[in-house]
Design a protein that fits this description.
- This protein has 358 residues and is mostly helical.
- 78% of the residues lie in helices and 0% in strands.
- It is globular.
- The chain starts with a helix and ends in a 6-residue tail after the last helix.
- Keywords: Cell membrane, Membrane, Transmembrane, Transmembrane helix, Transport.
- It is found in: Cell membrane.
- The complex is composed of two ATP-binding proteins (BtuD), two transmembrane proteins (BtuC) and a solute-binding protein (BtuF).
- Belongs to the binding-protein-dependent transport system permease family. FecCD subfamily.
């Protein structure tokens, strides 16, 4: 009788676990459908308004030309002007959401993000240096991008170097990141103080963050970085789950905590550097998306990482849609919209939180 009861309990646990996993997968499909829907609406709006049906027909015609038809005007506007921006928002939002999730997990700090750790400040300084002085490692069209990428990496590896000297603990990484953020912000301010008015305006606009200067080659670069970095982060997601129990517990279970933290931080900062050097500083995506994800599906990083990415993609393309339409034909910088959307959302999460999800 006791054996039967034990078997029944195991079956119930298995059923509950399968339901739990099913809800998570359903939520992933819901986010994917939402991204497709918002992307289609965004691609249909602009100076030449197209219907959503015409937009999807244009996209499907390129993928399946034998089964769908599309007009020449729709193809030009959708594929050459709007989809590069939208795909950039999806890829950049996904990367920032994943990066914020990993940083919060390895540092055990709900406020950790690419912005608060100074990586975005380093990229802003590099871009401002190129815009205001013309000094850079790479010339030509990639002068600003090259500088932003270089200084974002410089900031990241400085944080890793400083933290390794004192042990790669969450506290030292956070303190080193805050120090780098203030240092590069101060140097950027000094550059702008002595710069010409037009150059300063351009530097400030770049710093706010935007998706307006993109083409398919640039999208491919960031997509390539995401393809390289994301699988490495997913491989370590189980280690992140174990590390949540504490460094000593993780070490007793066979996880090399210090090495894992350094590897994850290096891969994450490389991904962030590839994104912010093209987009500029886009705040709140890497901060809010992981929190929304943990509220929705719990704290299992095997699911939190991809869902945070999807949440980040959805938030960024939604913010970009608002930026394009709220004062049309004026297009606002998307970084300002994410801040407007992110701050009230974050405050609402704090006020309405009824249980611990972190």
């Amino acid at each position: 009788m006791e054996t039967k009861q034990h078997t029944l309990t195991k079956e119930e646990v298995k059923i509950q676990y399968n339901k739990f996993i099913g809800r998570k997968l359903s939520f992933i499909f819901f986010l994917l459908a939402s991204i497709i829907l918002v992307a289609g609406i965004s691609a249909s709006l602009g100076s030449a308004n197209l219907t959503v049906l015409e937009t999807y027909s244009s996209i499907l015609h390129r993928l399946f030309p034998a089964y769908f038809e599309s007009g020449e005007l729709a193809d030009v506007f959708v594929w050459n002007l709007r989809l590069p921006r939208i795909f950039m928002g999806i890829v950049a939002g996904f990367g920032l959401g994943v990066a914020g999730c990993v940083m919060q997990a390895i540092l055990k700090n709900p406020l950790a993000s690419p912005y608060t750790l100074g990586i975005s400040s380093g990229a802003s300084f590099g871009a401002s240096l190129a815009i205001l002085t013309g000094v850079g490692i790479i010339g030509g069209d990639y002068l600003i991008v090259g500088n932003a990428f270089l200084f974002a990496l410089l900031c990241s590896f400085t944080i890793l170097g400083l933290s390794n000297r004192k042990g790669a603990t969450p506290e030292t990484m956070i303190l080193a990141g805050i120090a780098m953020m203030y240092l590069f912000a101060a140097m950027t301010t000094i550059l702008q103080y002595f710069g010409e008015a037009e150059a300063v305006k351009e530097a400030v606009f770049w710093t706010v963050g935007d998706l307006d200067r993109f083409s398919w080659p640039k999208v491919k670069i960031i997509f390539g970085a995401l393809i390289c970095c994301f699988p490495l982060l997913m491989i370590k997601s189980l280690d992140l789950n174990i590390m949540a129990a504490g460094d000593e517990t993780a070490a007793s279970l066979g996880v090399n905590v210090k090495r894992t933290r350094v590897i994850l931080m290096a891969v994450t900062t490389l991904l962030v550097a590839c994104i912010v050097c093209f987009t500029g500083t886009i705040g709140f995506i890497g901060l809010v998306a992981p929190h929304l994800t943990r509220i929705a599906i719990g704290g299992d990083n095997r699911f939190v990482l991809p869902v945070s990415g999807l949440f980040g993609a959805l938030l960024l393309i939604s913010a970009d849609l608002v930026a394009r339409r709220v004062l049309a034909p004026i297009i606002l910088p998307v970084g300002a919209i994410t801040a407007f959307m992110g701050a009230p959302l974050f405050l609402y999460m704090i006020m309405k939180r009824k249980r611990e999800y972190w």
